[in-house]
Structures are given as C-alpha cells and as structure tokens.
UniProtKB/TrEMBL annotation:
Protein name: Putative Zn-dependent protease
Lineage: Bacteria, Bacillati, Bacillota, Bacilli, Bacillales
Pfam family, one: Zn_peptidase_2
GO biological process: proteolysis
Keyword tags: Hydrolase, Membrane, Protease, Transmembrane, Transmembrane helix
Transmembrane segments: 128-156, 192-216
UniProt source species: Schinkia azotoformans MEV2011
Highest taxon of the lineage: Bacteria
Length: 226
C-alpha cells in the first residue's frame, strides 16, 4: 500500500504542476498587455536596455518551447509568444531574457548548472541500468553506483531551482522598469511566472523522493547481506 501511495505521489505532483502552468498560461495568454508589445518586442527591449545587442531573438515552433540558448546567444520564443501581445507572452519572454542576463553577468548558479550538464546526462542514462542490475541481481555495489549516477542528475535538478527563480525575479524587475506592464498587471504576470516555477520545484521534489527511496532499498539490501 505504501508503494502505491508513493508512486501516486510522484505521478500526481508533476501532473498537478503541469496543469497549473498550462492553466495559467492559457488564461493569461488571453489577457492583452497594456503596452501592446509582442513577446519579441519585449525581449528585444529588455536585451537592449541591458546592452545585450549581440543576443538574437528568434521564433521557434511548438507551445511553451521558449528557451535561451547560451551557445548561440539566442532567445527563442514559441510562435504564440513571439507574435502575441499577451501578459503571459510578455512574462515568458522576459523570463528567457533573464537567462540571457544571467549568462552575460556570469551568474554563479547558471555556470554551475552548465558544468553539470554532461555529468547529469551521463548519470541519467546510466543510473537506471545500474540500479536494475543491482536490484534484480541483488548486487549492492551496482545499486550504489546507480544511486551515485542518479545523484548527479538530482543535483542538476536542485541547482536549476535558483537559476529559474532568479530569472523570474529579473523578469519582473525588467518588465516593470521597461514599462511593459502596469501595476495592476504585476499580479497576473507573477502568477504566470510562479506557475512555471512550480514545474521545476515538482521535478526536483520527485527526483529527491526517488533518490531517498533507492537509498532505503540499498540500506535494506546491505542489511540482508550482513
């Protein structure tokens, strides 16, 4: 029964977070920003205000596929946000520009996250192979090695949190100072940004819970070997 509750939690938490962000985005993508600026214009304005003339703003396909690419120095906005004039579009555009500002200012947590990418990717790919071998073959060493690989991926998830929260904080400051939104639109913009942050919190929470569960399995396996 305990395992059923556990698996229900790790499935429901991400689903709830996704529903929150999609609900907030859907609602506020129908609310026009008073400035009448498209997401592309919002991004370009904030970039120029921070002297980041070398960072490009491009349209990309998909919904909520918005991201900042540090390799090419490009803010990519999904079509709805790139062309749209909504509060949600302005919030998302400003958030991605927040990452560009972090990059330009060598924000420590962003640099740390970039350094973790190859380790986290390797850990994600290897962890479950080693964990399954360890569990089914009852070899605690393989299980521990798999847990170590998973820990690298979990660390990446945890380090992502301050990066995302900081980008959202910068986004609010920038769109207010640039006059993109009025005071009565700040609450709506924060709802979009907070809902998006929930997805990262949910992912980190689930990753930590799974790591703790596997550590308990390892402890039990070692206890049986003694």
């Amino acid at each position: 029964m305990g395992f059923l509750v556990y698996f229900a939690i790790i499935i429901l938490i991400p689903l709830w977070a996704q529903m929150k962000v999609k609900g907030a985005y859907r609602k506020y993508s129908q609310v026009p920003a008073s400035s009448g600026m498209t997401g592309a214009q919002v991004a370009r304005t904030i970039l120029d205000n921070n002297g980041l003339y070398n960072v490009r703003v491009e349209e990309t396909h998909g919904v909520l596929s918005d991201h900042y690419d540090p390799r090419s120095k490009t803010v990519r906005l999904s079509s709805g946000n790139y062309h749209g004039v909504s509060v949600a579009g302005a919030a998302v555009a400003a958030h991605e520009v927040g990452h560009a500002i972090q990059d330009a200012q060598d924000y420590a947590f962003l640099r740390f996250r970039h350094a973790l990418v190859p380790v986290a990717n390797l850990g994600s790919n290897l962890s479950w192979i080693l964990i399954m071998i360890g569990i089914f073959a009852q070899i605690s060493g393989f299980l521990l090695l798999g847990i170590g690989c998973m820990a690298a991926a979990v660390l990446f998830q945890i380090v992502t949190l301050p990066v995302e929260f900081n980008a959202s904080s910068r986004a609010m400051d920038e769109i207010v100072s640039a006059g993109v939104i009025r005071n009565d639109e700040e609450r709506e913009t924060r709802k979009v940004l907070n809902a998006a942050a929930l997805t990262y919190v949910a992912a980190a929470l689930v990753a930590v819970l799974e790591l703790v569960r596997l550590l308990l399995v390892y402890t039990g396996m070692v206890g049986n070997e003694d």
